[in-house]
Amino acid sequence: MNKNVLITGGSRGIGAATARYLAGQGYHLCLNYRHDKASADALVAEIQEQHSVTCIAVQADVSVEEEVVRLFEEMDARLGCITHLVNNAGILQPQMRVLEMSAERINKTLITNVTSYFLCCREAVRRMTGGGAIVNVSSAAARLGSAGEYVDYAASKGAIDVLIKGLSLEVAAQGIRVNGVRPGFIYTDMHTDGGEPGRVDRIKSQIPLQRGGQPTEVAAAIAWLLSDEASYATGTFIDVAGGR
Ligand code: NAP
């Protein structure tokens, strides 16, 4: 049976590294992105040149329910039924204390980082009638809290951890596994959105392994949890945060 994976936010960063990794394992891929069509198209071209798999890119804002429904319908039509899902799209907003946060900012973080994961899980589970696997990308922030930087983001990732636990129990008897990866301090553009492009290098001396992580190191953990090698793992997490 074909392995058809949807990676939300698959155009850049950890999502793009995961796409490359899974293409090498023979998955057919649907790469979702929000704005950056050029990066998504370039990655599709690269993967199709290097691997014998089908790879498509679909624009959709996964924080909007109608767009999630359209994304899955487009994947059904162009790639085939989903067997694996990587919920990865997420945002970080500029660093500030909780005392300064507006409701608009908090809601934007929660809708983009949490509601989108719920909606994509819903659409995937509806289609995974023969079983399947879901990996939700959470964050070490869910354990650490991100004080003085973005507690709203950390809270959104805490909600993801609870989604993983609860949904894994709801769908285990259907042969669907739901797990999480909690990266921390990975070199991607996300830290620029958070207002500090050099954040990983500033923090790295406080990380037990004394360095930031690469997106490929997160991709490997995602790929293992998706794979049949993880067939008895559900409702669980891999921390990829250099020991923090
Ligand atoms: P990134 O480099 O900023 O890439 C974010 C990706 O998400 C892009 O493909 C972006 O699409 C997409 N995206 C954002 N909002 C979207 C929306 N509403 N609908 C559809 N796509 C959307 O981020 P990253 O660092 O790879 O992060 C990926 C995941 O890892 C996130 O969930 C993040 O919270 C988590 N994480 C990252 C780190 C880290 O240190 N980097 C640590 C812990 C957890 P466009 O390119 O079109 O904008």
From TrEMBL:
Keywords for the protein's UniProt record, in alphabetical order: Oxidoreductase
Q: Which domain of life is it from?
A: Bacteria
Can you give the residue ranges of the Ketoreductase domain? 3-186
Record has Oxidoreductase as a keyword: yes
Similarity comment: family membership: Belongs to the short-chain dehydrogenases/reductases (SDR) family.
Q: What name is this protein filed under?
A: SDR family oxidoreductase
